[in-house]
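Handout, page 2. Input:
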Amino acid sequence: MSVKKLKRYQYERYAVLCNLAYKRVLKQTRYGFAPNGQRVIANRFGQPMMRVLWGHQSDEVIVVIKGSHNLWDWLLNLRIWFRSCRELGLEYSIHSGYYRLINQESMPKHKQDHLGASVYQQLMDVLVPLIINGNKRITFTGHSSGGAVACVLADAVEKQYPKSIKRVVTFGQPAIGGWLMMRRYQLAHKTYRICCDLDIVTFLPPLPFIYWHVGKILWLYNGRIYENTSTLVRFGRSITSWLIRPFSYHLMSKYIRNKDFFDER
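Output:
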């Protein structure tokens, strides 16, 4: 899997959708989806957590998952012990807090939703007809904890419906599982984990050799894309960058770059 397989327009589209996921309303027709091509999956508080988007002319369904967006979500990040995912059909354990996000009750947002269903169950109720009857393939994308959750949900869907997942693209994602997940995760060849510069969240949880990332990392750093840079190397470069940053402002290149300030006066 090469970065060339993730086209610029795809990257931009997924990034824009992840950003819009934090908005209260997303008008899907503005972004090429069908008028009836959106279903919202809510969390236990009735707030949108995921959006399932599709169009009539494309075989791709995009599941967009937003990251922590309330105090309850942020506190779940602290539940760093592992929890088995066997009820999702997966033979590994994940971060207990993110497990809770997936299995929390989902408040109905659509006439076809029903009380008592979990986020995972509500999502599957939407995806299964699209996969079986619509011959659609699913892309999962998400930011922060939403990206971590996206990996697990995509793996669970792939387990039940082989070859139904098109790709997984995450932004600023923390690790979600241990060594066993890294070994058994089925979609490593289809997963792009995008990290921007010195994003501290991508080093969380701070438990090296206990938590592991999955898929290919694309590190956007110093104007370049680095593929599969190890966490240790990224951490070392990040620490070095933090230490020397005050001195970097002394370089003549910084003064030249800021010449446009004078044009504005």
